[in-house]
Specification:
Helix 5 links the parallel strand 6 and strand 7. By secondary structure, this protein is an alpha/beta fold. The chain has a 7-stranded parallel beta sheet. Helix 1 crosses helix 2, helix 7 packs across helix 8 and helix 7 packs antiparallel against helix 10. The longest helix has 16 residues. The protein contains 10 helices and 9 strands. The radius of gyration is 18 Å and the shape is globular.
């Protein structure tokens, strides 16, 4: 699995990780999801993303079951605090609850899930406190535009923002015009969540989907692997697709081991054009 520096942290992280949003909540579904996560880790997708919101903590518990089976240093674990919990003291308590569910002493990155009603300065200082206390190595944010990022960084006294996790897929490319260049300049990793869209992946019966399938056949890859590879074409971009099926995790992992030609990138760009500069980021 190809790795690259995770923003300015100096830590090499696989370009493809694994998300845990909306994993099945029943016993059989959780068992399949755990098998999928294990399969992904075996193929190098050791960046695991979760949050206290996902399944009201059940996703963190599921990741914790995987952590219990693996050397801790092998995995790069990220979780998030809900905005409704993101006061200075609330952020600390939320992090400690997440750590208990994960069965871990420390996160690799702890994020503010999205901006809420608590002052951003208060939340960012709380995240900085957690680094000082050894509860997380790095801090980050999610669903932030450039202005939000600038304000968040100004609120930090000692730490730097490691990453910004945003909605980014072929049908939601607003991050490319201003946010991605800013993150690249500032050493902030841009992490794409829902990189296949949310139940809206291009149908092969339509021109865009047919193009992805045709390019995939030329490389011995699927249309979804082509879509992932397109998103990862820019330095500093990571993606965290979610799956509850082992075969899909294996398919996702193989999206990082081939290259698209310039002509193929241009064709995908024309088929799924980025919106005009200034288009707000989407979110789910």
């Amino acid at each position: 699995m190809r790795t690259q520096p995770f923003g300015a942290t100096g830590v090499a992280v696989p370009v493809l990780g694994q998300g845990t949003w909306q994993l099945p909540a029943d016993e059989a579904g959780e068992r399949g999801a755990l098998e999928a996560l294990e399969a992904g880790v075996e193929r190098g997708m050791t960046h695991l993303d979760t949050a206290e919101m996902y399944g009201r903590g059940r996703a963190e518990e599921l990741v914790g079951r995987l952590l219990a089976r693996r050397p801790r240093g092998e995995l790069f674990v990220v979780s998030k605090v809900l905005p409704s919990n993101a006061s200075r003291e609330g952020t600390r308590r939320a992090c400690e609850r997440s750590l208990r569910r994960l069965g871990a002493e420390r996160l690799d990155v702890y994020l503010l899930h999205w901006r809420g009603s608590y002052p951003l300065e208060e939340t960012m200082r709380a995240l900085e406190d957690l680094v000082a206390a050894g509860k997380t190595r790095f801090v980050g944010v999610s669903n932030f535009d450039v202005d939000d990022l600038k304000e968040a960084q100004r609120a930090l006294g000692r730490e730097r923002i490691a990453c910004n996790q945003v909605l980014y897929h072929l049908g939601a490319r607003a991050a490319e015009s201003e946010l991605l260049p800013y993150c690249q300049r500032e050493g902030i990793a841009l992490v794409a969540y829902s990189p296949f869209g949310s139940g809206d992946f291009p149908d092969e019966r339509r021109p865009g989907g047919a193009l992805l399938a045709r390019i995939g056949r030329a490389h011995g890859k699927s249309a979804r692997q082509v879509a992932l590879r397109f998103l990862l074409r820019s330095p500093g971009v990571f993606a965290i697709p979610k799956t509850a099926r082992r075969e899909h995790a294996e398919e996702n992992a193989a999206a990082a081991d081939f290259d698209l030609s310039d002509d193929e990138v241009a064709a995908i760009d024309r088929a799924f054009p980025a919106p005009p500069a200034g288009t707000p980021l989407g979110s789910i």
